[in-house]
Amino acid sequence: MNAHIASWLGHPMTLLLAAALFGLFLLIVEVLLRSLGEMGNVRFQGMLEDHQKLLPVEGETLLHVSRLTDVLRWLEIAFAGLLWVVLFRLAGGDRLAAVALGVLVPACLIAIARLIIGAVGEDTVVTLLRIVRPVVWPLVALVAHVDPGPQEQPPEVDDDEEASEREIRAYLQAGHAAGIFEREDTEIVESLVDFFDTVVREVMTPRTDMVALPDTASIEEALDAFVSSRKSRIPLYHDTVDQIVGVVHVKNLVRHLRTGKPATLIALVHPCLVVPESKELGELVRDFQRERQQMAIVVDEYGGTSGLVTLEDVFEEIVGDLQDEHEERQPPEWEELAPGVYRLQGRAGIEVLAELYDVDVSEDDIDTIGGLVFSRHGTVPEAGATVEDHDHGLVFTVDEMDGRRIVSVTARRSESGPQPPEA
Questions:
Q1: Please, where in the chain does CATH 3.10.580.10 lie?
Q2: Contact present, 59 and 167 (Cβ < 8 Å)
Q3: What architecture is domain 334-413?
Q4: Which of 117, 153, 315, 422 is 20 to 30 A from 191, alpha carbon to alpha carbon?
């Protein structure tokens, strides 16, 4: 009897059946987990609320599920290899037949399982999850224990907004790893998460780059300014740019020219929105909606004009640079010249240093690379000047200047590295 059982267990068909059943089980489990991840895109939160007992871990469950599917993927590969060996024996050493069956059988099982699971509803997925829970969720809990993910400080009790932001980022990371989100989709959603923490000062056009006209300018001068700058709105000032009196729109100017009636430029001015540098972009959008405007003058704490911001600037913070066919293409904020050596635009935010060199760039009063280099140099640098930033262990070489404005620099690591702060 024992010999008969041993013979049956050692039969190639028994091994094939066992391998097929085990592989099919892994495929079904993976598809279930993948379905759970896909529901995270639209219905995952509601499912969590309705079926809390299904999940053995809290917080970044979807992230652990995604990692577990990667583990199951390797198990499927191992199963396919075992299946190929068995089929090779059954095919009498015919490699071509064994390879064909070894590829087609797993592929068909995967396609059929995913097609069936993808066609059923959420309730069916939940039921199947309950069935495989004794095997699946210990694996999920094990993955969560072995690799708990990014270590973050626990949120304070009253810090719901920060906790929600971390959860969103965790879901995005898991969704991207599982193939649910494309990289561009993830970047846009992350931009939306960062959007409400961004202030006007970070996206405005600085005062030195503003196109503005004095209130004594003629209609012809205004028309020339619109043509040369290719702007649709230009602020008007009295005496200095610190005294903005309003905004002239090109369509009003064209409408006036069509009438042929004499008029002064000041008669075409519309009131403009004035906002502080510290206003958050979310509040600015609401101001634009309420006032039905698309441009605002930005003032500093002393009431002086520090720049202007448009609705287009706000949109670009979410979807990236928007350049029409009339705008000159701006060079990228950074480009790699050699390993560890980058050309940086002076207008680029200092956060690119954290991305490129993995350094802490928390500067309260500095937003751009040009401002950082200017601050470290102490005076207006000349093209070719070398500026050392001991705090971050970097060396900047000024490549191009436009008057007193730094256009671009070349950055590299300092040989001495970052210096410790003075006691």
A1: 201-319
A2: yes
A3: 2-Layer Sandwich (3.30)
A4: 153
Give pLDDT tens digits along the chain (423 positions): 455 545 554 555 555 556 655 555 655 555 555 555 554 434 444 444 444 444 444 444 445 555 555 555 555 556 665 665 665 565 555 555 555 555 556 566 666 665 665 565 556 656 666 666 666 556 555 655 555 554 444 444 444 445 455 655 565 566 656 665 566 666 666 666 666 678 888 889 888 889 999 999 988 899 999 998 888 899 999 999 999 999 999 988 888 888 877 678 888 899 999 999 989 888 898 899 888 899 999 998 888 999 999 988 888 876 666 555 555 666 788 899 999 999 999 888 888 888 889 888 776 678 789 889 988 988 889 999 999 988 888 999 999 998 888 999 999 998 765 554 444
69-81 exposure pattern, b = at least 16 Cβ within 10 A, e = fewer: beebeebbeebbe
Rounded Cα gap, residues 373 and 388, in angstroms = 8
**CATH class, 201-319 region:** alpha beta
CA distances from 126 to 35, 111, 117, 206, 253 (A): 10, 21, 11, 55, 64
